[in-house]
Amino acid sequence: MTGLLLRLAGPMQSWGEHSAFGERDTLAFPSRSGLVGMFAAAQGVGREEGLERYDGLRLLVRVDARGVRMTDFHTVGGGLPRERTVPTAEGKRRPEGATTIVTRRAYLADAVFTVAVSGPGSEDIGRSLLSPHWQTYLGRRSFVPDPLLVLRVQAPDPEHELRTAVPLPRRRVPQGQRTVEVELVSEQVSTGAADTGGRTVLNDVPRSFASAHRRYTSREVLVERTALSADLVSDSIRQYQERLLAYVKEHR
């Protein structure tokens, strides 16, 4: 089955998994809910519509650059009259002196991920991402992706392509070393993987994006280090950009 290859890169991205209003976390890699949200936006799927169409998709994430985890300090409602501040859950207004809400929002700066998407409908998703119905973003609406979001729409084996052909950003490779280690985040968790320590359960499978009743279920993923050919690593930022562009031109 053909599949899709994406490159998620930008100044900032955030992939929350258990965020509350005041504390917005981020995973160290793209979440399934964040990616499904991106696909749904590109295809014009409304918040009230079902998400079952994405259940058959399989995701494999390659961590090309981990980025730097940072946290911003935000305030909401500061300096406004009480009647214009954020209401409480009961619809009332907060008392004087408590109208400003403090939030902390985590994000990844300068991170880069390559994602292989396979399964029913992946080709349609790829075409929609090239001409999206609604703007795509990297976890939050202000975090826009770099160009070359879509690397390839009809890869015969996207997971193999991710491991063997898609260029890696510049990194230090000792002279004579023929492989480099990268992290892969896989949904194909075998029984024998229990002893690796890389298994984790995430509550990031979206069942509804409706504003009044968002719902998520859990999935198990395996995060493991894998050796790839050092030939995939670029010597400079410019070479990396040129190799990415050449890869895209070859397969579009």
Automatic annotation (TrEMBL):
Keyword flag Protein transport: no
Pfam hit, one: Cas_Cas5d
Source organism: Nocardiopsis codii
Statement: the UniProt record of this protein carries the keyword Transport: no
Domain of life: Bacteria
Gene3D superfamilies (alphabetical): 3.30.70.2660
UniProt keyword terms in alphabetical order: Antiviral defense
Name the record gives this protein: Type I-E CRISPR-associated protein Cas5/CasD
